[in-house]
């Protein structure tokens, strides 16, 4: 598929991450952790003018302050893009108080452990079916042939969308995260395509209700009043946008990591699925490789870590950078598979904390357990390139491996 990447040509490579950061610079994907650590040694908040004025805090203190402050920061902009970018609602993530709470409450029951835990069996068989397709192979791409498919299956189970639409979802995500921040026409095109698709799916559920989240959303009411159609479409679009790339990136990062750490892999292979070591390992994957960086629009003059911010500025909410702050974590730069105290912020903080965290943890755990059971000795194929997605959702998009069975 051909994409309009002209705007990328106008963006010279970053040479100064403190004064001119860019989350779409190709160096961000593979090197973001080093970039944040480097910036943190120089100052707590980096700046750029590439998208209008936008800030990038890299400390836990800065990130916490912003995430908990809905008076100075709004979620109407949740990514750093051109300031004239057209923005469409996707509640609750784009909602501020007081509206936020009602939207969140409406979706919350679909994400409770009661709804998510029963998906484990189906998710395990799905992972095994992907592994079966690698039968007889010596090498594989653990992202293209494994990690990218798993969260789509989860979302399709939850929402009730057909699995055959997976390629279209991934195309929307690629364009939204990698291209749209620099190019309004891409953002508009994706919004129109998603709106048309979601309207059709919601209409189908009005005509014929089913036992799925699409049906709940199609009939959604707040205080006895039907939710407007644009917001219903926003709920559904949010599940597609928030539920696929994110977990796919976390699973991929875990696979990429363990491919290079045979000692840690051996410890995991040796224990039962319900061993505590699996729990600490999954939380450490989430801390170390946290895929999701959000943003806020500054709506009233304020300051963060001594840096003044003015209404209209954009503020990155760099949860992954906070997870590497040595003020917040002992041995922050080390991946400790049995880390005991791990108050990471991969799923955010405050009123917008991730609704899908139960599903994400389930998918991540099941995906890594089934892969390690099938390929306990797999390793990274260093003769081929691992490619990383930049920007809002960071993670490996190609992971060439030797299966070494
Ligand atoms: C490893 C995977 C995931 C990570 C790291 C992640 C991360 C996050 C973060 C950081 C936020 C906070 C947003 C903010 O403060 O603006 C968030 C919110 C949200 N996430 Fe996730 N997420 C993941 C998976 C999922 C999945 C699988 C779903 C759904 C199927 C999901 C649905 C949501 C929703 C609906 C919100 C908005 C909550 C609100 O605004 O009240 N996420 N997520």
Description:
- The protein contains 16 helices and 14 strands.
- It has 405 residues and is α+β, with helices and mostly antiparallel strands.
- The chain has a single domain, classed as Orthogonal Bundle (Cytochrome p450).
- It has a five-stranded mixed beta sheet with strand order 1-2-10-7-3. The chain has a three-stranded antiparallel beta sheet with strand order 4-14-11, with helices on one face.
- Helix 9 packs across helix 11 and helix 12 packs parallel to helix 16.
- The relative contact order is 0.19.
- Residues 1-9 have low confidence and may be disordered.
- Bound molecules: protoporphyrin IX containing FE.
- Protoporphyrin IX containing FE binds at residues 67, 75, 78, 92-93, 104, 155, 238-239, 242-243, 246-247, 250, 290-292, 294, 317, 319, 346-348, 352, 354-356, 359-360.
Please give the structural blueprint.
Blueprint: H1 6-9, H2 28-42, E1 45-48, E2 54-57, H3 60-68, E3 73-74, H4 99-107, H5 113-116, H6 120-132, E4 139-141, H7 150-159, H8 166-179, H9 184-207, H10 213-218, E5 221-222, E6 225-226, H11 229-243, H12 245-259, H13 262-270, H14 276-288, E7 294-298, E8 302-304, E9 307-309, E10 314-317, H15 319-322, H16 357-374, E11 379-380, E12 387-389, E13 395-398, E14 400-402
Parallel strand pairs: 2-10
Antiparallel strand pairs: 1-2, 3-7, 4-14, 5-6, 7-10, 8-9, 11-14, 12-13
Helix pairs in contact: 6-16, 7-11, 8-9, 9-11, 12-16
């Amino acid at each position: 598929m051909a994409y309009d990447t002209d705007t990328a040509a106008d963006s010279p490579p970053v040479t100064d991450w403190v004064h001119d950061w860019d989350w779409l610079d190709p160096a961000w994907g593979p090197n973001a952790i080093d970039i944040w650590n480097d910036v943190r040694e120089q100052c707590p908040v980096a700046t750029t003018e590439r998208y209008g004025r936008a800030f990038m805090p890299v400390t836990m203190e800065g990130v916490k302050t912003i995430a908990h402050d809905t008076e100075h920061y709004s979620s109407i902009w949740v990514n750093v893009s051109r300031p004239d970018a057209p923005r469409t609602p996707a509640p609750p993530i784009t909602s501020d108080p007081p509206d936020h709470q009602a939207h969140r409450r409406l979706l919350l029951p679909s994400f409770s452990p009661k709804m998510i835990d029963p998906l484990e069996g189906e998710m395990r068989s799905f992972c095994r079916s992907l592994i079966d397709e690698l039968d007889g192979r010596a090498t594989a791409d653990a992202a293209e042939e494994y990690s990218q498919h798993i969260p789509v299956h989860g979302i399709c189970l939850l929402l009730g969308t057909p699995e055959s639409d997976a390629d279209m979802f991934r195309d929307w995500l690629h364009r939204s995260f990698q291209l749209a921040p620099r190019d309004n026409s891409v953002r508009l095109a994706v919004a129109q395509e998603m709106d048309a698709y979601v309207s059709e799916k919601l209409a189908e559920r009005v005509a014929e209700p089913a036992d799925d989240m699409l049906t709940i959303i199609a009939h959604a009411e707040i205080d006895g009043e039907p939710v407007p159609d644009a917001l219903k479409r926003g709920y559904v679009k949010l599940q597609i946008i928030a539920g696929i790339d994110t977990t796919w990136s976390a699973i991929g990062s875990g696979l990429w990591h363990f491919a290079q750490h045979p000692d840690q892999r051996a410890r995991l292979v040796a224990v039962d699925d319900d061993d505590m070591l699996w729990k600490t390992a999954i939380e450490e994957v989430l801390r170390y490789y946290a895929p999701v960086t959000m943003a806020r629009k500054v709506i009233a003059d304020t300051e963060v870590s001594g840096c003044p911010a003015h209404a209209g500025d954009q503020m990155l909410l760099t949860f992954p950078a906070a997870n590497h702050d040595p003020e917040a974590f002992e041995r922050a730069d080390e991946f400790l598979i049995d880390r005991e105290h791990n108050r990471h912020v991969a799923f955010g903080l405050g009123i917008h904390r991730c609704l899908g965290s139960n599903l994400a943890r389930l998918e991540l755990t099941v995906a890594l357990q089934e892969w390690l059971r099938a390929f306990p000795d797999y390793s990274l194929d260093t003769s081929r390139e691992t490619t990383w997605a930049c920007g809002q959702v960071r993670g490996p998009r190609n992971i060439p491996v030797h299966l070494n069975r």
